[in-house]
Amino acid sequence: MRTAIGLLFVALLVSGATSPVDAYLKLGTPVDGRVVDVTWRTPIRYFVSDADAGSVSANDLRGAVSRASATWQAVPSATVRFEYQGMTASVPGMVDGRTTLGFLDRPELDRVLGATSFLIDTTDGAIVEADVFFNSRFAWSVSAGGTPGRVDLEAVALHELGHLLGLSHSALGETGLTGTGGRRVIASGSVMFPIAMAAGTIVDRVLQADDRAGISDLYPAADQLASTGGITGRVTKHGQGLLGAHVVAFNPETGALVANFALNANGEFAIARLEPGPYILRVEPLDDAEADSFFSTAIDVDFRVAYATRMVVAPKGGASAPIEIKVLPK
What is the pTM of this model? Predict the structure, then answer.
């Protein structure tokens, strides 16, 4: 049976969007009582809608998507392939057997820059169609160096193509509250962070370690399983598992940050596709962004930041022995 996922994954200006609780770096769907990765099993053949957006043209969008898809394809540890099929009069959001990216005028979504929707074969988790819309209500830019006051189209396309490939949101970022109650990004450690950088910036045209680990986990190159490592463990509070704890692995040699969440009631987590070597583990509550950007159920954020009592080694070709990290209430 094929069914459309009832969620949109969006790039937001100042707020987040809902993601399933059983996904973080990767999106998942239940198949025969277990959750499987949602991925493409064929090259991604896509069309671009021929509607302009006022500030930029459909051809500008085609160029931005082409550059963004080339960025994902260039990750050496992953096997990703996009194939542009041409322009179309169709608009994104139609279930028509085509993967279409294009502009839509969505004034009611005044904080949503773009969104991705899926049609998935629920017998095996294969993506059979996915559409991406970019909100034409925003002022867009395709300038090589960015345009003050305009949102960089390539950066948002890179984020949305990450969703299209099967990645969920990353929490590697830091935000601050604005005077209107929204949030602005102070620093971001992942293109898949759900809140966009300020208009005029182009820094999110470049994938970071967390993005590369995620895409390599979904579409690993031939040698990835043998050449990378993982870290597993459990986060507890008062001896009980803690759901929703954000666990960050920091490589002191390279400076790379790769993260995941404790994704079940036992507080268990796993961080995969790491460069082999020792890591510092930090556990923190998800209180620096909207929790519903990541989880569709309540999570525990009433605890202090904590660190593993020792460095943990991600072994080449395997995973670490599980480590327990204990946290205390605030």
Answer: 0.89
- What is the structure's pLDDT at 204? 93
Backbone angles phi, psi at 45, to 5 degrees: -95, 115
Count of CB atoms within 10 A of residue 35's CB?
16
Which CATH homologous superfamily contains domain 2-217? Collagenase (Catalytic Domain) (3.40.390.10)
Interatomic CA distance for residues 281 and 279, integer angstroms: 6
* Cβ atoms of residues 324 and 236 within 8 Å: yes
Length of the chain: 330
Q: Where are the domains of the chain?
A: 2-217, 228-327
Short-list 197, 199, 189, CA closest to 169: 189
Q: Which residues contact 103 (CB under 8 A, 6 or more apart)?
A: 49, 51, 52, 53, 58, 61, 133, 134, 135, 136
* Amino acid letter for position 174: E
The DSSP result for 291-303, as a single string, is: GGGT-SS-----S
Q: What percent of the chain has pLDDT over 90?
A: 68
Q: What share of the chain is helix, strand, coil (3-state, %, to 5)?
A: 15, 35, 50
Decide the pairing of beta strands 151-152 and 140-141: parallel
pLDDT tens digits, 170-194:
889 887 767 666 667 777 889 998 8
Residue 96 CB partners (closer than 8 Å, separation 6+): 90, 129
CA-CA-CA-CA torsion sign (283, 177, 194, 36): positive
Q: Per residue in 71-121, pLDDT tens?
A: 999 999 999 999 999 999 999 999 899 999 999 999 998 888 999 998 888
CATH 2.60.40.1120 is held by the domain 228-327: yes
